[in-house]
């Protein structure tokens, strides 16, 4: 597979909105007893084709979310969105989670569950059909969804990579 050029270089001029996907209370057992902390997985996006995810861990929930947002801003990708949906169907796996995303006609809405819905809304996809198989672990679902979205290519990119005109992409 070719090199992934979807990475967003700078975040200074982008207005990002964050969405909390999941929060976990984690416990570390020490000699002195149990030490509790929180782990938060967060998705940020500008609702116009740019999205990122991050994981934050801290002693308090708000601090964990803030760390997750900062981590997400360092992990942004650009996704081709065509008329509120994706350009083609895609399947991706991460760990035990497998996701299947399919373009939908206008007015369909986001037909996806939990963790996947947060990612689609953050990227600005308004019409998509999505199915998750296997694990429902939010961490793996978010990562599998990001893998699928990062592998999407629009017609212009396909034409450029093949060195042909846009008309030939749709004829051949």
Structure description:
The protein is an alpha+beta fold and 172 residues long. Helices cover 29% and strands 35% of the residues. Helix 2 packs parallel to helix 3.
Terminal CA distance reads: 21 Å
Query: DSSP helix count?
Result: 5
Rg computed from alpha carbons, rounded to a whole number of angstroms: 18 Å
Chain-averaged pLDDT? 88
Shape: elongated
Q: How do the strands of the widest beta sheet line up side by side? A: 1-2-3-4
Give the ordered list of helices and strands: EEEHEEEEHEHHH
Give the percentage of residues in beta strands: 25-35%
By DSSP, the count of extended strands is 8
Helix content: 25-40%
Low-confidence stretches: none
SSE-based structural type: alpha+beta
Query: How would a textbook summarize the main sheet?
Result: 4 strands, antiparallel
Labels describing this entry:
single chain; 172 residues; alpha+beta; four-stranded antiparallel beta sheet; 5 helices; 8 strands; 29% helix; elongated
In short, what is this structure?
With 172 residues, this protein is of the alpha+beta class. It has helices at 61-73, 114-123, 138-150, 155-162, 166-171; strands at 17-30, 33-45, 50-58, 76-78, 90-94, 97-103, 110-111, 128-134. Helix 2 (114-123) runs parallel beside helix 3 (138-150).
Please describe the topology of this protein.
Blueprint: E1 17-30, E2 33-45, E3 50-58, H1 61-73, E4 76-78, E5 90-94, E6 97-103, E7 110-111, H2 114-123, E8 128-134, H3 138-150, H4 155-162, H5 166-171
Parallel strand pairs: 7-8
Antiparallel strand pairs: 1-2, 2-3, 3-4, 5-6, 6-8
Helix pairs in contact: 2-3
